[in-house]
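Table S2 (text version). Query chain:
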Amino acid sequence: MTATSCNSMRPQEGLPGEPAAAPDSQPAPADRTARHDAPPSPPAPPAPPPGHATADALGAAARAFLDGLDHASRDRAQLAFHSSDRQDWHYVPRRRAGLAIGDMNGSELSAAHALLRTGLSQAGYRKLEGILLLEGILGGIEGNPGFRDPGHYHLALFGQPGHQAPWGLRFEGHHISLNFTSAGHAVATTPAFLGANPAEVPSGPRKGLRVLASEEDLGRAFLASLTPAQRQRAVIAPAAPLDIVTEASRRAALPSFDGLPAAEMTPAQRAALIRLLEVYARNFPDDVADGHLDRIARAGVERLHFAWAGSAAPKQPHYYRIHGPTHLIEYDNRGGDHIHTVFRDLQDDFGDSLLARHLQEGHGAHVHRRP
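Corresponding structure-token output:
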């Protein structure tokens, strides 16, 4: 069995995370009994911004990581926030900014993984571990373990982690690009790319491992749930593209909303579409994931579109995407055994909206105030 590769800047082409439904919490009923002698209740404090807890924990973990580095390693790991490297992302093997995990000692590596666990959910971190494992397996399949070295993944910090100024974090290598941007007590978590090659390990001790199984299986199951008329709307091309359509673009943009709109789906189908979407959103901690899902809901679930291209059969090339006003998910399985996925926030990739709010609130040197 031959695994296809991502070796060029423009690709030609378990440890699985499981979907988690958003908790159905019900607030306790309010006491509606009037008490004329009771003092008025103080106003409720404002709710923390989405991702507040994760932003604070991520900053603390990033400072701990930096504090454990010697001067030479810290110079490699930490770059200026406004460095052009911060938004120069990709998911193919190439030269990268930051400190390679293969160059870290044991304590540094432990701190790096503690930082990554802080920014991801348990499911998301398991996928990350699985992709690192797959890189070594792919090296054996291709007979090139030096090139497919899990030590080639790099961790880079941009700016000084904390609340005073914006800062960023990226963990990146073949089939992983995780990008975090934090300002104040909030965090943006996209673009987030995860890939798997092979999609299913063909032999050896890890035979049968499918790191991105839920992404594949729930997508195909959703297509199968459609009526013939719905399926005709959803399928936008007989062949899958060679890669995710937006590739490693700085800003994700598609010319139109293609496929089947959720407004034409049954309630059960819309619920299944949200479960598929959650597989991607819940790679992050609950406070971050809930923030993404809440914005999608407020923009209108009925405005989401599901599009499919290629075969519906397992192990054949196929592609799908979920596209709405605020977010875009793309999944591509090149050759049927080589998965690329990306989760994009169309308003907040690299913290675009977050940083704009941060400046509007009076933070940073570039705020322009009227005299």
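Notes on Table S2: Confidence is low (pLDDT under 50) at residues 7-48, 365-371. The chain is about 30% helix and 15% strand.
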